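Co-fold these.
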Amino acid sequence: MMLKKRKREGGEFSASSMADITFLLLLFFLVTTNIDVDTGIGMTLPPKVDEQEIVPMSKDRLAALLINENGDVLLNGEIIAIPQIGETLKERIRSKINLPKKKKLVVSIKTDRNTNYNLYIQALDQVKDAFYSVRNEYAMGKWGKKRDKVTEEQHKELKEKIPIIISIAEPEKVQ
Amino acid sequence: MKFEKKRAATKQEIPTSSMPDIIFMLLLFFMVATTLREQEIFVKFTLPEAKAVEKIENKRLVSYIWVGQDEKIQIDDNIVKVKAIQKIMYDKRVALPNVIVSLRVDKNSRMGLVTDIQESLRKADALRINYSALPK
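Predicted complex below.
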C-alpha cells in the first residue's frame, strides 16, 4: 500500500481585505467618539472676605445692569433691551481707553433670585462682547491684527488699556 | 519588420501588505487622541447660547457642575445638595489648585440657585468659573 502524502499548496492567505477591515474599524471609532469642545463664558469670582470693603465709585465709571424676574433690564436706571446693551457699553468703553487704571469702566450685573438664567447669560454675553469688540478695534487700529492673534506683549497692553471688570453682585432677596 | 511591444520586466503591482499597518497606526492615533466620555449625566439640561464664548484651553483643569431642569445638581457621578458643594469643591481645589469649574446650567434655571452655587464656590475658594454656553 502506498500512502501518499498530500501536498499542501503554499500556506498563504490573502491580506488584501485586511485593509478594508481595519478601515471599517477606523470608521467605527471615528463615528462613535465625539470630541466635545468646551465653550463658555469665563469669569473669576471675587474671593470671600469677612469684611467687605466699600469702595466709593464715581458715577461715570459705573455701568449698573439690573435684571429683574420679569426680564426687564435696567442700565443705569433706564430700561434697555438686551441686544442694545453692547452698543451702549462700547461707547463708554471706547471713551475710557486712555484714562488711568482707576477710571476704567466697571460693569456691575445684579439679578433677582427669580431671574431667568438665560437672560443673565445673554446680558453677560453682551457685556463681554462689548469689551472684546473694543479690544478688537484697538488691536486692529494699532497692529492690524485681531485681539486673539496678538503677541503676549501686545495682549498685556490690551489688558491694561481695556480691562474687563465685571462685578457680579449678590442678588436681592424678594420677599 | 516585426515590432514587439516593450514590456517592463517588473511587476506592475503596488505591494499592499503594509496597508493594514498604516491604517492600524491611524486607528491607534484616533483611539489615543479622542477621550471617551467617562461620565454619565443624570440631569437634563439645555445650554444657553452666547456670542462671546471662548474655548477652555486646558481640559485637565476642568471640573463640572451640572444643573438640570428640575434644579438637580450633579457633581461627578452623584446628585448633590447645594450645601454639599462647598466641601466637594474644596477637596477638588486642594487636589488641583487652579481648577476651573464649568457650570453647565440649564437655561431656564433661576438665578437664585446659580448664585447659591457661586457662593459655595467662593467659600471653597474655587474662583475660576466658566458658564458653559454654546456658540451662536
